[in-house]
Fold each of these.
Amino acid sequence: MKCKGCGSASAVISMRQHRLALCAECFPAWLRQYTQRTIERYEMFGPGDRVLVAVSGGKDSLALWDVLVALGYQAEGVHIDLGITHGDYSARSREKAQAFAGTRGLTLHVVDLAADYGATVPGKVAERRGRTACSLCGLVKRHEMNRVAWEEGFTVLATGHNLDDEAATLLGNTLHWQVGYLARQAPVLPASDDGFMRKVKPFCRLAERETAAYALLQGIDYIRDECPFSTNASSLFYKRLLNELERRSPAAKQSFYLEFLQAREGGAIRFQEAGRPSMTPCARCGQPTTAGGLCAFCRLFGKDGR
Ligand code: SF4
Ligand code: ZN
């Protein structure tokens, strides 16, 4: 198949949902422009913003950082070392993130849970029976990314969530009628007066195979293993279901997610979001919390560290 961009080279990727097949030269340029259009379409940020990219060491976050820098944005990265020693997962993820930043001369902010707080996610799982690694990990990431962005003067926090991630989240939220989450699942979450950063997902309209192809073609070295705690994650099961659906009905994922966004934007569907409780700054870290006194992160991780 010939590339529809240049018309001469052989296409390396065919994207039925975009009715497009592109070669190894045209595809990365197209993906960058498509990301730029997503940034503009949802008014995510502009050239004057300082963007902090949440970098796990996986393909999506590194590809996003690569794209934002190529588009000329002021983008730095933040990586959180969760202290997962199984398969050296955290050490290898961190190495990928640091190597990417190092070879490109980019700034990466690293939070090391063990060194900075004297604790790790697996350690806390063992201590707190009943809390899953993923719920603790989510708490750590939300807190630390917001804190770094806030302390370092960034104006927006960007994550590498792609269309497959968003469609799987939407499926999970719909199956359980998580009305509050359905109200808030969006490409942009605005900043709040009480200290939550603006959060954006510039890859939300790109399929996982497209971000993977971009990483491959750009020669980005990323961690290919899944996190050892992900084996029972329902999000992976939902992704498999959606892939099956996509095989029978091409572009099903895209229409499921994008038509949900359009229907909500246009007012065809509405979800009543419960009023958000008022926030006060945490007595230790200053991050917003509903708890009064210490935030959930400081109650869990604040004893030994700073
Ligand atoms: Fe964190 Fe769970 Fe994802 Fe592992 S699978 S990185 S523990 S959220
Ligand atoms: Zn706190």
Amino acid sequence: MERGTDRAVLVTGGAGYIGAHTAKALKEKGFLPVVFDNLSSGFREAVRWGPFVHGDVRDRAALREAMSAYQADAVIHFAGLIEVGRSVQRPDLFWDVNVGGTAAVLAAMQDAGVTRLVFSSSAAVYGQGSRGALETIPETAEKAPASPYGDTKLAGERLIEAHCRAFDLNAVALRYFNAAGADPSGRIGEAHEPETHLIPLAIAAALGARPPLTIFGDDFDTPDGTCLRDYIHVNDLAAAHVAAVELALPAGAFEAANVGTGRGCSVREVVDAVGRAAGRRPPHAVGPRRAGDPPSLVADPTRAQGLLGWRARFSSLDQIVADALRWERLPAYGCGARAPVSSPVSEAAE
Ligand code: UFG
């Protein structure tokens, strides 16, 4: 298994939504993304920019073997379960895969002598506390996850921080706000099953591919009564991961940074943006609140800007929706995928 001249980065969960976009961004920056994924929710078709290793993230020996075979310089650890609602029903699974998986990644890194880790964390580590709807969240805000999913992300961060101190690793945890959009090439995009996220559901409703959208509550203490979220284009997220891999950090360092825009958009604003882009307003009705939804989650992204020299470039709501719409109209894989008639993109671009 020759890795060639590119610096190899092991990407666990690299067949998933954010992982695949990050693998593409790594390749474009001269890295070799080695995707390690068990395809339980990812797609083989999304692995296009480097080798694929089929494996479970709890399998320390398989991780070590992949890191050694490709002489990985760094690991980006995405693999894990993400559905907040399911985490309430199956906390056992979430702790096993998310925290057990992170422990296995850390152990395998020690075995293989890899010292740099970038970890997929989440705004779900923060609680709502007494924050007002228009206040942004700095990294120092109280950590009080509202779900077992958020608990496992916080536990993962703490495990990583302790390993950094004890074993001279160094790591960056990126706390994502609301990942959205798709690569403009149309070759990779969001494909969750079940899909629970607002933007794909609103687009599918506008296209008539799914039932009308339910707005989960319009009686929040926010400007238009619907929840505010900080939507970040998946390619901006991908760029933040590449910057974190490239960061010079001393042994033992652990950093955490929010990845968001600093701007909150309401559910109604998303519905309007989808209507503008699709030429048809998504049919919708207001329903009750969804359990556990905080009124507002908006990043203070100052730390990521300073630490990583990064800022969001593609994350206007209109750009996110335009790119997501292109993907939802013709997804290359996933449940809604149609058989490819002809590829509009040259294979030479790979
Ligand atoms: N929403 C609706 N109708 C829907 C779906 C969503 O009104 O059919 C609303 C939600 O109530 C929320 C907003 O749209 O106000 C965004 O919801 P998403 O499900 O798209 O995203 P979340 O903010 O719930 O989830 C995000 C990340 C999770 C993370 C969570 C932390 O996707 O990974 O934030 O709270 F865990």
